[in-house]
Specification:
Shape: elongated
Oligomer: single chain
Distance between the termini: 49 Å
Number of strands: 2
Helix content: 55-70%
Structural class: mainly alpha
Mean pLDDT: 84
Largest sheet: 2 strands, parallel
Order of helices and strands: HHHHHEHHE
Strand order of the largest sheet: 1-2
């Protein structure tokens, strides 16, 4: 008897919000490349090699941020931790791109002002995207929305009491239902 193959959902179907944020980051890097090109050369029409460098940088940034855990759940983490992981991901991506340009001997073909401007604009836009999302979620959680309810279980009761008494859990998106 032949079995019917089950449908396997894609990454975008299983995790729509992280996929959407990765697409936004991708578009932010491309927009940063265009803005940096306008800043450096005075026009927005990039030639082929700058298009290639922008596309490769966007892919590298999204890959490094994804491997760094930026697209995972940020619930329960302080904003400083989120920013430090974001900065580390951008620095790794910049290091990879600088290394590639050095080893492929194409670094003299690109403007350093353009590339550093693209990294600065892209990193800044990515930071402000996270800051905006953090402030919106903080406001939603303060009004009682977007909270996950948790049940605290502890045998001694001491650490549960410390967690239960702390209002920090609600600030990070958790609502204590009860303690046992």
């Amino acid at each position: 008897m032949a079995s019917i193959p089950q449908y396997q959902p894609t990454f975008a179907e299983r995790y729509p919000v992280p996929f959407f944020v990765a697409l936004i980051d991708f578009m932010l890097v491309i927009a940063a490349g265009l803005l940096a090109h306008y800043y450096r050369f005075g026009h927005i029409e990039m030639n082929g090699r700058y298009n290639t460098a922008t596309l490769l940088t966007a892919i590298t940034v999204v890959l490094c941020l994804g491997l760094g855990g930026v697209y995972g759940s940020q619930r329960g983490y302080a904003f400083l931790r989120q920013v430090s992981v974001l900065i580390a991901g951008w620095c790794v991506a910049a290091g990879i791109m600088f290394s590639l340009s050095f080893f492929l001997k194409v670094s003299e073909n690109y403007s350093r002002i353009w590339y550093t401007s693209m990294l600065a604009i892209g990193g800044g836009l990515s930071f402000f995207l996270r800051l905006t999302a953090f402030l919106i979620l903080k406001r939603l959680r303060a009004s009682g929305m977007n909270l996950k309810t948790v049940l605290l279980v502890d045998s001694a009761g001491e650490s549960t009491g410390q967690l239960y008494d702390g209002l920090a859990l609600e600030r990070y998106g958790f609502k204590v239902l009860d303690k046992i």
